[in-house]
Structures are given as structure tokens and as C-alpha cells.
Amino acid sequence: MRLTKTADQWWKTAVLYCASVQTFLDTNGDGRGDLEGMTSRIDYLADLGITCLWLMPFYPTADADDGYDITDFLTVDPRDGDLADFVSLVQVARSRGIRVIIDFVMNHTSDQHPWFKESRKSVDNPYRNYYVWRSSTPPDTSAAVVFPDVEDSLWELDERTGEYYLHNFYKTQPDLNVANPEVREQISKVMGLWLQLGVSGFRVDAVPFLFAVDDVPAKEREFQYDPHDTLRHLKAYCGRRDSDVILLGEVNVPYKDQKKFFGGADGDELTMQFDFIGMQAIWLALARGDARPLAKALAGRPALDESNQYANFLRNHDELTLDKLTDAERQEVFDAFGPDPDMQLYDRGLRRRLPPMLGGDPRRIRLAYSLMFSLPGTPCLFYGEEIGMGENLDIPGRYSVRTPMQWGPNATGGFSTAKPRSLVRPIPEGPYGPARINVSDQRSDPDSLWTFMSTLIRRYRQSPEIGWGAVQVLKHDQPSVLAHLVQQEDWAMVAVHNLGDEPVSVSLSFDGVLDRDLTGPAAPAPVDHLAGLLHGGRVELDGKGGFDVDLDGYGYRWLRVVREGDIRIA
Ligand code: GLC
Ligand code: CA
């Protein structure tokens, strides 16, 4: 691995951890987490092994979308702390080798944002073009709304001027007109502020919606609209401030469309994107106990420029969206992991966390995370995944998975000294309550999920080919098994995962896949054996590059390719 390249490409092998300030740790007893609480748990995150913390919104908000409806981009919600608390958090994180990236919502603001309050005043207000207005009656957009339980159109009539404004999300989240150079200027300025305060990048919210204004009559848009130009502009701006800044985009689109959000040949738009397609394929594969949907997805995953990366995840703070599966496939996942209508959301997803979906079966839970960490890209955990937290379905909508972090066994999960009923959200009771699931018990238990997760994180960090490499799915005849090779130069590892509950033996071969592009004097030495990275042990090759791997039901192995005369540490 060319280490010289890694300095400003830290994100190639990062381990991301998403957390919300409000649900992590409360230090002043008001029942709501705060920046000081987050700072005091940086050592915990360092101990777990994560290298980059993604903070969900902590800006002043009108509280209509858990902070994604921002009223001021330039500061911190006073309930969370102040700017100095934010800077302390970033500094402490840095001192422990953890970078901080922050959620950045540039598609919309709250309708309480001063820009929108101005914009809606009159058609010639200086802020009018900060948002997307139309005077003519909008077409029927009911099929395109993101939150069909409360919205039935992307356009809202504003009485005062008799015109309609665009809102892809709630009507209290008017879409910014990012085509307007003044808006772009404002966005750059905001990014400049947070970069100066020490962040290493942004998780860019809802990227495709920046593009989703195709039905706006051109004459009603004052500016020529090229959203790719906006992304390029922002990336370049960030790069000029700091060469190692990332833009991590939330882009849930088919693979064939995803590539363009990374930009041109040199990847000059988003640095990273979440792999929503791979994630949905994993869930379908888990539901079927059949690895082929995932093998198919990986085969179709576009290869990326070295300056880009996928972020792999199984769950996040929203519903588990299954919108890219067919109706029949989605139904299969619903039947397997969320049969109760109360577990489902908007006909497209499940408002659950992973362990209850997998019936609390430790074998399946570990299999799923092993798979996620072995896929080329950068793994991303949602807080609480490391201890196997469950959802609280008593909480409406997507917030069911955003309950307070469970640090200890008491009724507030050690999250706050406030009364349990005064917490920002109620902690789940029963098998996923803090008495059973908490950090304190698991951190000292060598057999806990926490310990397993910290081992996975360490192994991922010891296997740079996963972050840097390309993937090839290996052929064999066991439908329940995914066997994939990741290689980068002379680093390579094979991961083998059995999604079925029956033990299997798989015959694999490197013939025609390993070292494909590495010939001539630079070619690495022949393979000596495969070394087990997670469970130890070794696998020998036959004379022709073939080898057999035995797996239990839901079993998995990570196998490093060790070459003759290899002096790398195992
Ligand atoms: C993104 C966020 C989601 C939020 C929406 C609107 O999809 O992940 O939580 O509601 O954007 O900002
Ligand atoms: Ca607090």
C-alpha cells in the first residue's frame, strides 16, 4: 500500500460512527443530550476504535424534523451547548485520533429561518430567489412526496403572495434554490465557518433532491440550473480550505445514476456516498438466506476513482428504506423482519434496529456486521449498534430508532440523571431495555457484541485492502454463501459468509481472479496460504490455486492472502 497517498485520504480506511448529540449523554440533567456529554464520551469512541464521528444536526431548529429543519446554520442550538462546546468536542476528538464530520442540510431550511421569512414577504424581496417559487398551478406531485403520511404535494401555496414554494420534505422545510449564486455563496460561507472550527467534512443531506426540480418551468428559475456545478463548486471550495475534507453524500439512487454524483474522472463532486443499493441487497439476501442478490449487487457496483469511496451501512437514523427493491422483494423483507404494520413506514421501509429484526440471534447479528465490514469501502455504524440496541416502537415514525444511548443498567440507561419520563425520548423496555443491553456490562465481557464489534473494527483497520481495494465475487456452487475477494496491489483477502442456517463446505479458486492485473517483474510472489483474520487458523491451497472453506450455519471467515516470503504482520 502506498502510504504516502494515505495522508489526505484518511477516509479510505476510516470507521464512521453516527450519533446525535441529543440522545448520546445528558450532563446537565435536563433529559436531553448535549455537546459536553458527547465530548466526555470521546474516550469511549476511541476505545471502540472508531476514527470519524458523524454528528447529526445540532443547529438551532424549529423541531419539526429532529434538527433537519434548521433556523440558523451558523451556530449551535442553545439546548445542546454553545460554539465553544463544539470546538472543545472537535479538539478532544482530534487529540484521540478521531475526526468529526457534521450533517449539512443544504437542500432546505426551516420555514422559520430568517431567509424564508423574508422570502415569503413579497415577490420582489431580496431573498425571494433564495427559494424555489412558482406562480402557476403545480402539477400533481403526490407520488413524489417523501413523507406521504403528512404531505400530498411538493408545492405549497403561500397565501401572502399567492405563489407556491417547493418543499421536497415537510412543508415546513422549503427547498433552497441552490442554483442561485447568492445561495451558493451563503452555503460556502457556512461550510467555511465549520471547517475553521475544525470539522473534517460534511455528511451532505438529501443530495438527489437538489436536482429534483425538473418540473419547474425554466422561465420561473432566474438562474441556469446545473446542480453538478454546485457540488463541484462546493467540493473545490472545501478542498481549497483543507485538502483532506470530505463530502459524504446521502444519495439513494440506482448504481447507474450514482456515479455522476461522484463527479468526473477525478471524482470532483462527492468524495463518498452511502451504498444504499448494496445495503438493500444485503437485507434481501439475509431474508432469503441466499447470497445471490448481494453477489448480483456487488457485480453491478460501479468501480470508483481512487479519490472516491462507498460508505457501507446496515442501519441508520431513518427507516430501513427498501425502496429500490421490487414490491415482491420488499414484501419478502417485510415478512421476514417486520411483519407487523406498526414496524413498517411509508410502504417502503422498516422503523426498526437490526438485532430485533434478526430475532436477537447473535450468530446472525455477527454475520451481518462481519459482512458489512468486509465489503470494500468505509464502514459506518449508527450509535448503539455496537451493543445491539433495539428500537422503541411506542415512539412514532422514524424516531423509534433514535432512543437514548444505553450506557448502564438503570432505568435511564445511564444517559441522564433526569427522571425516565423526562428524557428526550423514552428508552425501550423489555429484552432491549438497558437492564439487558448496555455498554457497561458489555465492555468488560469478552464474549459480548461490543467486544466482537471492536475486534471487527480492529481487523478492518488491519486490512487496508478493504478500504482501498476492488471487489470480485468468487464463483462456487453454494447459493447461501457469498465469497468475495478484495485486493489492492499485493494486498488481498477473501471473505466467506454463509447466510443460511445449515453448515456448508465451499470450494473456491483464485484461478483468473487474483493478481489479474499484476504481472511481470512487479507481480507479487505466489500465494503460500490463507491466514484466518477473525478466528485464527489457516487454509492451504491445492497446487492449482483452489481451496475449501467449511462454515457453520451463519458462519463466516476472513482470510488474508499470505505470499511466499511475506514479511507482513498477520
Ligand atoms: C435526510 C435525513 C432525514 C431528514 C431528511 C430531510 O433524508 O436523513 O432524517 O428527515 O433528510 O432533511
Ligand atoms: Ca442536557
From TrEMBL:
It holds the Pfam family SupH-like_C. CDD domains: AmyAc_TreS. Residues 18-425 form the Glycosyl hydrolase family 13 catalytic domain. Coiled coil: none annotated. SUPFAM superfamilies: (Trans)glycosidases (SSF51445). Gene3D superfamilies: Glycosidases, Golgi alpha-mannosidase II, Oligo-1,6-glucosidase, Domain 2. This is Alpha-amylase.
